[in-house]
Coenzyme A biosynthesis bifunctional protein CoaBC
Amino acid sequence: MLQGKKIIVGISASIAAYKAILLVRLLKKNGAEVRVVMTSASKDFVSPLVLSTFSNNPVWIDFHDQHVWNNHVELGLWADAFIIAPATCNTLSKMANGLCDNIVIATYLSARCPIFIAPAMDEDMYKHPSTQQNLVQLQSFGNHILSVNTGFLASGLHGEGRMAEPEEMLLELVEKIGRGKSWYGKKVLISAGPTQEAIDPVRYISNHSSGKMGISLAEAFYLQGADVTLITGPMALKPAFSGIHCVPVVSAKEMEEACLREFPNSDWTIMAAAVADYRPVTVASEKIKKKESNLDILVEKTTDILACLGTQKRSHQKLIGFALETENEETNALDKLQRKNLDAIVLNSLKQPGAGFGLDTNQVQVFHASGERHTCSLKSKEAIAQELVDLFQQWE
């Protein structure tokens, strides 16, 4: 996700400095080249040798080492991003006021790349007016301030001020500097997850969809530069990136309304949601009591959203459907492809081991309206999503 990106990690003297080791490892794992600068006092909290080992580069602690100048200006100009993690109250004050007495601040003042700041301190220090004023000042300079977390602090108290986790920092860096350009300028609409059709205030009709495939597609498109709108049914999973515009819905009717509202503005629409085919004709206003007799529920068909969008599709738009079949799989998928005026359909099979609801893996077949076929072998849903996005790029 950060392949070839050059990132500086700046470390100041906080107990949270140990997390910088994990951050460096994550950055390297995701393809970044990493250089570390740290204040002299931060050596009491984390070993320069460990950071040098994981970054595969020398660690700079002072302006010179063994009579050799560490060129912080050159380093600042080298980087694609500079993240200060942890940034103590003292460091924030120096950054906000230009007090340059260590190599971390000197590199910060020399850098022309995006700057990310991860504060770390006790709650009272974090909430102090001077600290908040410094954060506002730093943000006004164009720096990206990462949100602190709430939890147990080094003081033994519980509150705000915990530094963001390394995984959160990675996502922030990816979102700001790691996105590709292959889908830049394209508006992509994706639906994901199940719908719930109320029977009474307590019960509903639904299915086993987790929404993971749809979310993986949304993230893959977003990482390639697309403007993504994700319509989600009720589900626990959420996309990792805040830049993905989420539209939460519950019922098939709400899903229909959201899709019809968003569809005219989309270039590509991928309907991966498992929308209920039927809903109760009437919804009981009170909880239905359990009785000895059976309960009969009269249901009616919901709107076929995909077919409806197919009738509205314009020449520049691409419409992709998903089909989950248990019998006559290919025949049924090809019928939907033609009948619903789709550009392509992605076939899921519940019969294939490792594929289906609630799993982290999947395997699919893709049928294009031109007759072209493509098979995605069993792999993670994230990898399937990336393969599909690359395939769709060929049809753009």
The chain has a mean pLDDT of 95. The chain has two domains: 6-177, 187-395. Residues 6-177 form a domain with the Rossmann fold fold (CATH 3.40.50.1950). The CA atoms of residues 267 and 317 lie 5 Å apart.
